[in-house]
Amino acid sequence: MGFKTGIVGLPNVGKSTLFNALTRTAAAQAANFPFCTIEPNVGEVAVPDPRLNKLAEIAGSKEIIPARMTFVDIAGLVRGASKGEGLGNQFLANIREVDAIAHVVRCFEDTDVTHVEGRVDPVADAETIETELMIADLESIERRLQNLVRKVRGGDKEAIAQERLLKAAQEALGAGRPARTVSVAEDDARTWQQLQLLTQKPILYVCNVDEASAATGNEYSDRIAEKARAEGAAHVVISARIEEEISQLEADEARMFLEELGLEEPGLDRLIRAGYELLGLQTYFTVGPKEARAWTIRKGTRAPQAAGVIHGDFERGFIRAETISFEDYVACGGEQGAREAGKMRIEGKNYVVADGDVLHFLFNA
Fold it and tell me: Which positions ≥6 away from 11 have C-beta within 8 Å?
């Protein structure tokens, strides 16, 4: 199950530098001029999870396969993008394809790096992009409502539901609030997702600070933190420049470098955890002599659907799941010890998988 997070922001806020660090590549050209990223660069990163290494060590696994998350570096947006300014149309098309938005905002002073609007104001930057997305959503909603008129008059239930939800989003946007602030009933969740509104996507503000502020943040990142709290959004503080340096170091050197800066872990780890939380994701494991592997699922996923992430046949022919919690697996020294200690559970189709479960699925081929 792949989840895409789009890295967005105004030009020259550090998007491509962050992308390079995240993906350990130089695929995105980081340059001091607008639109240096033309085509959206796509990169996959391993999700850091020390539990996986521990499980592999206990089981003697020959291979370790972490969960992965996809990041998309999307061309910088400018004011007027909803009207096609800059690379606006391309930006809006690319952002529709991602599951969540990592909105990079500039929280540093640097006279050598120009700002597209000639000043450093992260809240104003965030509002510029949010406004463009809201305008694009409003225009999209108006078109869709016009196209639904005939079906609604004919009593089409799906069209009636879409109209109701579109009008709810329209009301929120008209009041200056993004679509993600609309309260949606569980019965409407699927139809709501199908609307694919830009401001419907969950957002994570990434405060790109100077090196000296990487551990504590600064007045700029504090303002974004306040904005995020008010919106019920998430935020992380990262120095993209530091992350880029770390990405080029060996593991031991990187640890020493982080310690010197007063940082406990790379910003990547914080970003991934925040992204997981934002999307409501969690991890389960499959472990054996051949490999130890992490799998990503949404919170609340039942056992058959979790099995389906590995292969569709596992879900269709699901019989039961042999389940051991991560803590019990470690405490008992592995699967056999957990089995002997009575810590292995047999779970059926209604079992909701817990974060960290070690699972073995039985199914009919």
Answer: 33, 34, 35, 36, 76, 77, 78, 116
- For the chain, how long is the longest CA-to-CA vector? 68
Residue 205 has pLDDT above 80, yes or no: yes
**Mean pLDDT within 140-165:** 93
> Average pLDDT of the chain?
86
| Beta strands in 146-202, from DSSP E residues, in sequence order | none
Strands 41-46 and 203-209, sheet pairing: unpaired
Query: Cα separations (Å) of 207 from 101, 119, 204, 215?
Result: 13, 16, 10, 12
Q: Are 10 and 74 in contact (CB under 8 A)?
A: no
Q: Tell me what pLDDT residue 251 has.
A: 80
Q: Where does residue 215 fall: left (phi above 0), alpha (psi -120 to 50 degrees), or beta otherwise?
A: alpha
The C-alpha atoms of residue 363 and residue 365 are separated, in whole angstroms, by: 6
Whole-angstrom Cα distance, residue 89 to residue 85?
8
pLDDT for residue 29 is more than 80: no
pLDDT value at residue 80: 53
Burial class (CB in 10 A: 0-12, 13-18, 19+), 38: exposed
Instruction: Evaluate whether 180 touches 203 at the Cβ level (below 8 Å).
Output: yes
Higher pLDDT, 203 or 3: 203
Quickly tell me which residue has 């060590």 as its tokens: 57
Nearest to 241 by CA among 16, 8, 10: 16
Q: E strands within 120-188?
A: none
Phi-psi map region of 62: left, alpha, beta (phi>0 left; psi -120 to 50 alpha):
alpha
